[in-house]
Amino acid sequence: MSIHSRQISRRSVLAGAAALGLTGTLAACGGSDDDSGESGGPVKLTYWSWAPNMEKVAAIWNKKNPDITVTVSKQASGAEILSKLITAKKAGNAPDLIQVEYQSLPTLVSNDVLADISKYAGDTKSDFSEGLWGMVTLGTDAVYAIPQDSGPLMFYYREDLFKKHGLSVPKTWTEFAETARAAKKAVPDAYLTTFSSNDPGLFAGLAQQAGGKWWTVDGSGKWTVGVDDAATKKVTEFWGGLVQEGVIDNQPMYTPPWNQALNKGTHLAWVSAVWAPGVLVSSAPETKGKWRMAPLPQWKAGDNVTGSWGGSSTGVSTDSKHAEAAAKFARWINTDPQALAALVKEVAIYPAATKGQSGDILTTPEFFSNQKDFYTTAAEIAATTAASAWGPNVQTTYTAFQDNFGKATKAKKETQFVSALGTMQAKTFDDMKKQGFEVAEA
Amino acid sequence: MTSVPLKGSDRIAAGPLADGTGTAPSVRPSRPRRRGRSAPYWFLVPTLALFAAFTVVPIGYSIWLSLHKVKVKGIGLGKGAREQVWNGFGNYTDVFQDSEFGHSVLRAFGYGLIVIPTMLGLALLFALMLDTPKARSAPLARLMIFLPYAVPGIIAALMWGFLYLPDVSPFYYLLDKFGLPQPDLFNGGNLYLSFANIAVWGGTGFNMIVIYTALRAIPRDIYEAARIDGASDLHIALKIKIPIVMPALVLTFFFSVIATLQVFTEPMALKPLTNNLQSTWSPLMAIYDSAFLKSDIYGASATTVVLALATFVLSFTLLRISDRYTGEDRA
Amino acid sequence: MTPLTLTADATGRAGRARRTAWVPTLVLLLGTLYCLVPIAWVVIAATKNRSELFSTFSFAPGTGLLDNVSDLTAYRDGIYWQWMANSAFYAGAGALLSAAVSAAGGYALGRYSFRGREAIFKMILAGVLVPSVVLAVPQYLLLSKTGLADSYWSMLLPSILSPYGVYLVRIYAAASVPAELMEAARMDGASEWRIFSRIAVPMMMPGLITVFLFQFVAIWNNFLLPFVMLADDTKFPITLGLYTLLAQGASQPALYTLVITGCLLAILPLIALFLVIQRFWSLDLLSGSIKS
């Protein structure tokens, strides 16, 4: 913002606030409560995160590092935080450390919220797979965050019901469609699974698996928006067709009726990510031990690629006065074995760090006691994650997905699915154009 | 922006804010009534300061923001990627061309058309019932119907949300038992009814009390005179009571209109339970979506200004109409 | 409108003193029922534990109330009670400050005549036309610029000004503080502040209590302001806390019982307040301003 605006509003606010004696407060609030200077004196960092129990992990650090204290400020959720961060940044008091979902990284970088911590990153790169590391560098030499957790997609199914009705575990999407039809025939009241218009992250992951690249940018800074590229269209038509056929349900996930469906077996499978056990524990407690996890169906037989659903990283803000200390913490919490163990145990995430995906840290989830090699399989699947390509206005795209696919799933018409995708593309493109990006359609 | 003449030259620096030991302010002979002339202004300082800070300045800031937008340079990543530029009325043309916002306004109107007559109708009905001499349950009913006012809107919406859920709601249980159709209350047109029900439930009590108070203020002799003339109770209600409490009705109508244009809590509360609710269902949700999800505070400011102006215009028009109708002089 | 027809004879009141007016009674009872249904439901639902919630008939009481309350308390180390405390703080402190500010402002407008009085009054009233919901976003932006967003101040400051409160006090002051008393006090050498604090305020007390209660309820019930202003959830009031609990917990049925129990506990304070207050204070005061 220009200095001019700051002077005007500050003057008027001060005038209004003077009578209330706030001047003292304002002066104190101007900066953060850290000491100045990197050397000497204890450092206090704030960490905005929404994952549950993050403060327990931070407590471990605080004990080992008495001169760098990290205080976790629990936020409500991921999407609305973005705006609060951007506004806080404009006011000059963004927190030192931030939990950032991968898809939000370009937005925050574009608003100059995240600092480039490449000079403090050292050899952290080697701790992560190439695909994951690419998500935090955005294809540049800068490092904007350290990956924390990831959510590779896999296929979960009710082993017992599949056996009971003679259904085969699909290895390709074509087989998936057949299994869906067979399931419908065997159990008319049930569905193989549902297509949820409330979860754009899942849809993005599926498009990613098919090779979709929604945003790309070339060397000269020109963006290309391809939300409705061929790969994504293929995914859209596939699911739209199945919903129209009536073999796939159309209700949203994470609602009471959906929980019931999982619990009672009206949904026989779930396309989800590695963190599914945590959800199933509370959504479908009666189905413990009855599920099995398998790799995601492929588009071409013999392929081995998956997408990802969600996942976040730890970034350092440009407002932080202790970037080096903050980066140190970010590195520690995402690569140190003790931190990773705590993250798995307390926060219930699947670590992005390769060394966290194997070994003793991850014990077979109780819910999947029937699948002893759960995490070994998961690690193999995780390694096949396709690269994702996020852009600076993901939230717009996501909202467009929810609004338009919501109508399409309600109507159960494949053509509406396709046009919904077109609307998503148009909205994304128009929004970027309006902001002044140089952008072209794929 | 305020009219507090803090720098007025003819003020005495009396000590109303001192520790109570101030001197008696002197009186100018030419204005015998203006004792402690500065006192009222000092008493008003907190009010006016807050008014300036939290009403005037935000509006001004909003207007200022609405005339700007953000422009991205180059690749759009990293430092200096964005700058704020003047946009004139660009944001406003966007608002008026935004069909989604237009739809949200229409929805708010539709919603209002359902809520306001129902809520005020019920409030009037209950108030009239309370005013009936031999209504047995009056004191209890008066308290119970007013009770929803004590429930925060969001909690009321959450509670009703659960009551709308087929798996949990007793209504669905009963419908199921009697084999009646079970409407999907989260669907399209039914959403209006679902939200309206929550608003009516929460707001009827307060409005009822307002109207009831006005009814109680009517001198009883009017009724005696009317009864002597042979008027039935219905007649009395329609021809005497309602016209006399018309100002109260107008007041409640007025505030209800403003409230329905701002509908936000009910859709937000029910949103997690369904996938049929757009993020821009109501105008205020559209503003919230712009400001906090799209991070477009400039467009959001323009929309806010438009909504505020629309509310103003609507309020003034309603005031004018009501003045003409009731013949009251609103000073 | 047939419901308004009374069965009791309108003219012979003395002779029919015992006859009940059935139709109004019935209408009012239906209204009472309608208003009580959700509250009754939440009371009963809060007694059910997780498995009972979806399986038993809605109005059959369950067994898990104490368990639910202890689960709620255990959730994130008692943050629910922190939310409750926050609500009490925001509403209590905010309403207190609001009553004080309105007292001063309304008193000035009601008991003095000075240049610009009507203009100031109209201006403040115009504030009612721009309800806080429309102001919330710009207020947030401004407070953010001064670094106060996501703080206790950000919730208190915007809630203090109450145009309705000023309006009410003005009416009340004009009606209950006699000018002669003020004159007499002035003759005795009292300062304006003394007159205000020692004489006027005690006389206006019922009106001030009304303003306090009105603002208390308004702040307690407020959802949008904290929704916009606060990010750190240890500062949430109960309204926002319950909403985020449900929004986050849509995926975790375990949280439904917590939300329902939370709802019940959240509405109890205000309902208790109302039941207690209505004995000592007439609801009529709240709407007594219509006459003017």
List strands and helices in order, with pairings.
The complex is a heterotrimer of chains A (442), B (331) and C (292).
Chain A: H1 3-18, H2 23-29, E1 43-49, H3 54-64, E2 68-74, H4 78-91, E3 97-101, H5 105-110, H6 118-121, H7 130-137, E4 145-147, E5 153-158, H8 159-164, H9 173-186, H10 200-209, E6 215-217, E7 223-225, H11 230-245, H12 256-264, E8 269-273, H13 276-283, E9 291-295, E10 312-316, H14 323-335, H15 337-347, H16 374-382, H17 394-411, H18 414-435, E11 439-441
Parallel strand pairs in A: 1-2, 1-3, 7-11
Antiparallel strand pairs in A: 3-10, 4-10, 5-8, 5-9, 6-7
Chain B: H1 39-66, E1 68-72, E2 82-86, H2 90-97, H3 99-130, H4 138-146, H5 153-164, H6 170-177, H7 188-216, H8 220-228, H9 233-244, H10 246-261, H11 265-270, H12 283-293, H13 297-326
Antiparallel strand pairs in B: 1-2
Helix pairs in contact in B: 1-13, 2-13, 3-7, 3-10, 4-7, 5-7, 10-13, 12-13
Chain C: H1 22-45, H2 50-55, H3 65-74, H4 79-111, H5 117-129, H6 132-145, H7 152-160, H8 163-176, H9 179-187, H10 192-221, H11 224-229, H12 238-249, H13 254-280, H14 284-287
Helix pairs in contact in C: 1-13, 3-13, 4-7, 4-8, 4-10, 4-12, 5-8, 8-10, 9-10, 12-13
Low-confidence stretches of chain A: 1-38
CA radius of gyration of chain A: 23 Å
CATH class of the largest domain in chain A: Alpha Beta
Can you name the CATH architecture of the largest domain in chain A? 3-Layer(aba) Sandwich
Which structural class should the secondary elements of chain A be placed in?
alpha/beta
β-sheet strand percentage of chain A: 5-15%
| Biggest beta sheet attributes of chain A | 5 strands, mixed
Question: How far apart are the first and last residues' alpha carbons of chain A, in Å?
Answer: 33 Å
CATH topology of the largest domain in chain A: D-Maltodextrin-Binding Protein, domain 2
Helix-residue proportion of chain A: 40-55%
Number of domains of chain C: 1
Question: Can you tell me about this structure?
Answer:
The complex is a heterotrimer of chains A (442), B (331) and C (292). Chain A is α/β, with parallel strands linked by helices and 442 residues long. Chain A has helices spanning 3-18, 23-29, 54-64, 78-91, 105-110, 118-121, 130-137, 159-164, 173-186, 200-209, 230-245, 256-264, 276-283, 323-335, 337-347, 374-382, 394-411, 414-435; strands at 43-49, 68-74, 97-101, 145-147, 153-158, 215-217, 223-225, 269-273, 291-295, 312-316, 439-441. Chain A contains 18 helices and eleven strands. Chain A has a five-stranded mixed β-sheet with strand order 2-1-3-10-4, sandwiched between helices. With 331 residues, chain B is mainly alpha-helical. The longest helix of chain B is centred in the middle third of the chain and has 32 residues, at 99-130. The two termini of chain B are 22 Å apart. Chain C is mainly alpha-helical. Chain C has one domain (73-291): Orthogonal Bundle (MetI-like fold), CATH 1.10.3720. Chain C is globular, with a radius of gyration of 24 Å. Residues 1-17 and 286-292 of chain C have low confidence and may be disordered. Chains in contact: A-B, A-C, B-C. Chains B and C meet through helix 1, helix 3, helix 4, helix 5 and helix 7 of B and helix 1, helix 4, helix 5, helix 6 and helix 7 of C.
